[in-house]
Amino acid sequence: MEHNAGEIVELAVRRQNVNISELSRRLHVNRRTLYNWFRQKKLHTDVIFEIGKVINYDFSHDFEGELNGFGFQEDLTVLKNDIQSDHPGSVYYWMEKYIALLEDYKKLVRKSSLS
């Protein structure tokens, strides 16, 4: 089956509602590179695999056997564990801490301004 790898990847990115700027930042490439990849008929399996990890999508179903042996499911499990908000190494953990701190600060400022 002839498929356009770039279009498949772009469609998956769009379906996952992933921001292109965020995707480019997490992949350490510029946005133009992403758009160039989306236009290519063939993409290196490493590129497809890395995009899949970032957007939390398994491309092995779309590329029938081309991504076998990459251990995507194992890496996806590790990635899911890493982004859990209760994990101290997670960005979301620290983001929640920061927001809670800001809210506490805001309460203190309001309280001191009323006194």
Note the topology.
Blueprint: H1 5-15, H2 20-27, H3 31-39, H4 45-55, H5 72-82, H6 91-114
Helix pairs in contact: 1-3, 1-4
Portion of residues in helices? 55-70%
Order of secondary-structure elements: HHHHHH
Low-confidence stretches: 68-74
Radius of gyration, taken over Cα atoms and rounded to an integer in Å: 20 Å
Number of extended strands: 0
Shape label: elongated
**SS element count, helices:** 6
Q: How would you sum up the major sheet? A: none
Mean pLDDT figure? 77
What class, by secondary structure content?
mainly alpha
What is the straight-line distance between the termini? 73 Å
Give your account of this protein's structure:
With 115 residues, this protein is mostly helical. The chain is built from six helices and no strands. It has helices at residues 5-15, 20-27, 31-39, 45-55, 72-82, 91-114. Helix 1 (5-15) packs across helix 3 (31-39). The longest helix is centred in the last third of the chain and has 24 residues, at 91-114.
List its traits.
115 residues; single chain; mainly alpha; elongated; 64% helix; 6 helices
Short description:
By secondary structure, the protein is mainly alpha-helical.
